[in-house]
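assembly run, all chains below
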Amino acid sequence: MNAPVLSLRNVHKSFDKAHIIRGVDLDLLPGERHAVIGPNGAGKSTLFHLISGQFAPSKGEILFDGHPIQGQTPQKINHLGLARSFQITNIFPRLTVFENLRIAVMQREGLQYTLWKIINRVRPVQEKTESLLERVRLEARRDTPAGELSYSEQRSLEIGMTLASDPKVILLDEPMAGMSKEETHYTISLIRELTKGCSLMIVEHDMDVVFSISDRISVLVYGEVIATGTPDVIRNDCRVREAYLGEEVCACA
Amino acid sequence: MKYVRYLIAIAIILLGVLPAVLSQSLVNAATQMLIAVLFACAFNLLCGQGGMLSFGHAAYFGVGAFATIHAMGDGSVAGLLPTPMLPLAGACAGILVGIGAGWFSTKRSGVYFSMITLALAELLHSLAPHLKGMFGGEAGISGMRSPAWGLSFGTSTQIYYLTLVWVLASLAVLFLFTRTPVGRLTLALRENTHRLRFLGYEVHRLRVLVFVISAMFAGIAGSLQVINNESANYVVFDSHLSTVVVLNSYIGGVNVFLGPALGAAIMTFFGYAVSDLTRSWLLYQGILFVFVMMFLPSGLSGLRQLWLGVRRSLSVSVLVPIVAFSCVAGLMLIGGVIFSVEILQRIFSQDYQSLLVTAGSAAWPSVSLFGCDWPPGSLLTWIVPLVLVIGGSILVKVVKKKFHTLNEATATPDTEIPLPCAAEDLPDINKLHHVERDSA
Amino acid sequence: MEYYVVSLLNGTIYGLLLFMVSAGLTLIFGMMGVLNFAHASFYMVGAYLAYTLQKLLGFWPALVLSTLLVGVIGALVERYFLRRVHKFGHAHELLLTFGISFIIAELIKLIYGNFPVDYRIPKSLDFSAFTIFGASYPAYRLLMGSIALAMFALIYLLLTRTRVGIVVRSAIYKPKMAEALGHNVPMVFMGVFSAGAALAGLAGAVAGAFYTTNPNMALELGIMVFVVVVVGGLGSLEGAMLASLLIGLITSYSVGIDRSLADLCALFGARAWAEGVGGLMTLKISSLAATIPFAFMLIILLVRPSGLLGEKE
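ok done. output:
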């Protein structure tokens, strides 16, 4: 088995007295699509915040490619090759779709402090942005302000921005939340297509999505991972059914 | 967009031939206008593009001014730089102070940023009179322009051209800036710093960078002011200047690159034109600002878009009477406001009040306004402004109603007339503030 | 000793005054998300109204009436200005109040002239409360302090012990939820805005007689209130209280220090160098009294960017 690209070791997080994450161990293998599921309030989003650097864990280690990253700033973690999307759409609403993607692309090209180039003439950035625009299938909306896109288009844009930095690991926080059936189907195919070659960790409530998309699933309940395994294993795990689905079906103590 | 280019070319040519047709004092006023234009554009880089509303931009204008007066020399001592290069001193001072001030103030965003910039400017304002060597105490410092490059720099025309060259060059650079990667990121700073951070950008450093560039151009503007006046006084740090640049920029419209320039030019021009006629120009400026904020959130430059939007669905023949009536209503309202302000100003003036004391219990003497005598005791004096304001308001309501019925009659759901809506057009400082807070 | 005690008293009373203004500002911000730039203008309007009215009615009725009038002005500003631009966002509201503060200052200049007016403590209150170390202490200062304290007690009780207070606090905490529960939130907003304005007006009416009443007083106090709010943390009443008292004390103590940074350097044997540098190094602290609160704010920003009691960012 390959060494995990992202690995959480006994991670804890408390807010004042509330102990949200209680010792999570989790491995993300290279190239796998790993879903994190769990009931509301289980701490899934908090887990993402801890990994992506929005919060620092109270205790424990987060290893990215074998190096500890816990407590680093978001921009530092992003530079290492980890990108995330947000549960609530998080874009630049008054800028055009193209501009949104270009801003995401520019970072990788090292243009953060460049004052002496006209951006339209930086070929690599323009080309990369155009191809990204194509990959997220938003060519037709190129010059529309991002705030005027439909909800699912905004989610596509969000995923596109996450991909712009060619990350090794992508975290997607409920990419399908609030979508219709067709939109969900469309987005699943988009995610499958786009995340080829990188490791994906995804939080999602829609079980159809989770079981169809993921190689492995981890179940988070009250800040603890109670099970990790392939969709089949999880489907048949009685603790999961008990805790997550509220069923008392098995008698395996 | 082609015709915008032609317009700019024509404007530059006009500015070039201006001194040939204007009197000395008008050339001087034009120089002031150019300086105000540059200052407003520097301010707008930070505010309109970067979403950081500074209430203390006079500080950077001021340090530019003082750096220049020190670099200028005073006749006995030779200057550090030849006169045409003096704005470089202002630019350097702007950069240096901008780094310090920007580092502090951009640590916070939203309303905190505004308050900190205000406090920093006040810090300089309260400190400056005590530092004699640097700011010349209460009296200020004077200098003298020395001839350079075969030019005497002794006439207002030469100073005008010097200012014109520097302002046009600065505006060109500021415009090109918007096309650079940092220029694009500046807009992203306004939109969503939280997201920017997760895209791997160092938001604080970017903010400082934008702040410094804005301070640099403000410094150049201050420098040009000193080249024009040959003196600098700590009063330049007064909040008045910071206030006026906010008012001018928003009256012009902060969403368009040249909007603040438009506002600054118009306001400075009017300030000069009416300075002999009224003492209440600042009050009018404030009223105009509040009016713009309430009814025309994208400023004067938003009018063009409004007009284009309206033209799309309504024919000119329908629009002409509406525009005509709006103009009449506007004029009535303006007339009413001006009348009331001026008559109150005269009644409350010291001369009149002392006249009242000497007159004793006799009826209040008349005040003269617009070539007539208006007795404050007479009903007519107060009916005039009242009729103008009420009549104007009624007319506004009528026109508005007419406009709406026309709209409904012609507009299908798809071609609804887009009014300039500030909800999306303006940097929502507080939203950013909350986002920041969420990212704890 | 005398200096310490008197400065302590003066500083505390000035701090209480600052709190009277900053409390309203911070309450309004917490509830509506609006930084009311015109808040200090209400302070100025209070002073000028009291000055005008006391000539006609006497001091105490003028105090009450001007407070009420400023409250009405506040309500009108909220109802007819702020509420109309609410849809454009908070930045817009801030700019609008900025414009209103500008108009108020210009109107005051137009009516009363661009110079201080002769607003004084009434004769009946101009006596010394007690003698301390041979110097008499003005009773009016104590009056200012006690009015401020009485106000807080009243507000505190109102907010914590009454039904109205509970609605107001819930509207501050979760305006949408309070509205869904059937409370008239716009009305609550207007009420709090108006009460905050009235509080500032009262502070102005009381303090204007003691300090000077001039068209710049709004700006001077306004900036100090912003410093208080940045230091204390916006939206936190306790923070505003702490910061107000700190700033009050720092200001009042620094007025009496006749030392300079050069004296500090002398401790390390570097006096000659410091005096050679001149400028800031040789300035006496007392002449920097107006600057020190700003320096204090910068230090706080360095150490605790979110303010003393503000939420962490």
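The CA atoms of residues 52 and 395 of chain B lie 38 Å apart.

Chain B has 19 helices and four strands.

not gonna interpret more than that til we talk
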